[in-house]
Amino acid sequence: MKVLLFGQTGQVGREVKDALLASYELITLNRLDVNFEKKTEIERVIELHKPDLIVNAAAYTAVDKAEHEKKKVFQINSVAVEAIAKMAKKMDVWFIHYSSDYVFDGKNKNAYLESDAPAPKSIYGQSKLDGEKAIIESGCKYVIFRTSWIYNDIGSNFVKTILKLAREKKSIEVVDDQWGSPTSAPSIAKITALCIAQIKEDKFKSGIYHLSNRGETSWHLFAKFILNEAEKLGYQSLLKAEKIKPIKTKDYLYDAERPLNSRLNCAKLESQLRIELPSWKIEAQKIILKLIQK
Ligand SMILES: NC(=O)c1ccc[n+]([C@@H]2O[C@H](COP(=O)([O-])OP(=O)(O)OC[C@H]3O[C@@H](n4cnc5c(N)ncnc54)[C@H](OP(=O)(O)O)[C@@H]3O)[C@@H](O)[C@H]2O)c1
Question: What's the rounded Cα separation, in Å, for the pair 59 and 175?
Answer without folding.
Answer: 25
